[in-house]
Amino acid sequence: MQEPEAIDGKTTFDKFEKYARLSVPRYTSYPTAPHFQSDFPEATYRGWLGALDPDEPISLYLHIPFCREMCWYCGCNMKLARRPGPVADYVADLLTEIDLIADAMPARMKLAGIHFGGGTPTILSPEELEAIIARLKERYTFTTGMEAAIECDPRTLKDEIVKSIGALGFTRVSFGVQEFDPTVQSAINRIQPPEIVERAVNHCRAGGVRSVNFDLIYGLPHQTVVTLTRTIERCITMRPDRIALFGYAHVPWFAKNQRKIPDEALPGPAERAAMAAAASRMLIDAGYIAIGIDHFALSTDSLAVAARAGSLRRNFQGYTSETAETIIGIGATSIGKTPFGYAQNSPETGAWSRAIKAGHLPVARGHILTEDDKVRAAVIQALMCTGKADLDAIGNSHGAAQEWYADVRPSLKSMGHDGIVSVDGGKVSLTAEGALLTRIVASAFDGYLTAGQVKHSLAV
Predict the structure, then answer these.
(1) Whether 321 contacts 331, CB under 8 Å
(2) Residue 95: exposed, middle, or buried by beta-carbon count in 10 A (0-12, 13-18, 19+)?
(3) With contact defined as beta carbons under 8 Å apart, do 249 and 266 qualify?
(4) What are the b/e assignments for 351-389, b being 16+ CB within 10 Å?
(5) Domains of the chain and CATH, by start
(6) Tens digits of per-residue pLDDT, 131-182?
């Protein structure tokens, strides 16, 4: 992907305004979750699990949906839990689901990685986290060099859970920083002085965790280029190993808590583009490598190593260096991917729990991958990870017909004329300016993206 240091966000927005105002998916999967089938058969998912190759390592994603407080910007599936009871009940069901999944597989599978997301996984007590890891070790084989990551809320991170994270061998912690400006924090209901984050980072590193990730967001209410760059300046002093810089997805029709954020407080698309470009320049100047569309990493981080090696991947956790083709989702609303298709658990914890107690896999939605899905997914993955795609070579590797992408040629021609991509036969590459519009280019290959069917967040 082209280096973005010379890009000016405002100039790029003005030049490509008709694209920058479009709403498209983030493409952490293809097809994207809104296009999954409802009432997906449990038997189909069981068949997929039973057909996995025992010699191929898999990854696990475990979803902990509970938080102590509600952040108004959040679009995740979460529940408020101010008492320990609901969390303990959830963990008991999660342990049972781990067994149900393992029982459905053809053998004791090897794990390439585990990722705890949420919600706030560090809402768990040390005993609960240790019980989950112990159950995973009973049912799976932890491979050498396996990555184990957990998302943390620095505001509620207790010393006891930090000690458990280190003792259990977690290799990476991820902190939701978002923005340090007090006005912005107040507008999103997340009061979090930088000193709290710095203390959490230092404690985790002292406890043996070798990699730290920060999540930052641009496009928040009352946020400006100045507030964001001040936040990044402070973040750089803490030297996280990687930073995810996301554009705020304002989807109040989906996330009702976002209705507390007035539309008039949000920066416009041009301001968002300027923020993204300014932040990118600062991080690159500070020694971070631009990874894909929204990640940055130190040169020694596994993301940067994977990017150099051409093995970078993108999945539901964003960019990753893991190469496992199968990711199993465990917990309410979690999504998994197998070579055969996607499966998503029930988002409602009650329905999820009832299914598990009845001995069922709590799958609610899913999608069986077609051959056309696979070739388009490979192109989208290539564009999102490298900024280029050889359409003929990818098509040949999937047995697709010659010129399988004929339906996309008009869009590519138009984008080429506008300077977003360069097209040479079947080879497509994003230009330096077009890199900010990677999601738009990827969307040209989306066979499910029909105007008016599903709402998405802004492309920039």
Answers:
(1) no
(2) buried
(3) no
(4) ebbebbeeeebbbbbbbebeeebbbbbbbbbbbbbebeb
(5) 1-22+370-447 (1.10.10.920), 31-330 (3.80.30.20)
(6) 999 999 999 999 999 999 999 999 999 999 999 999 999 999 999 999 999 9
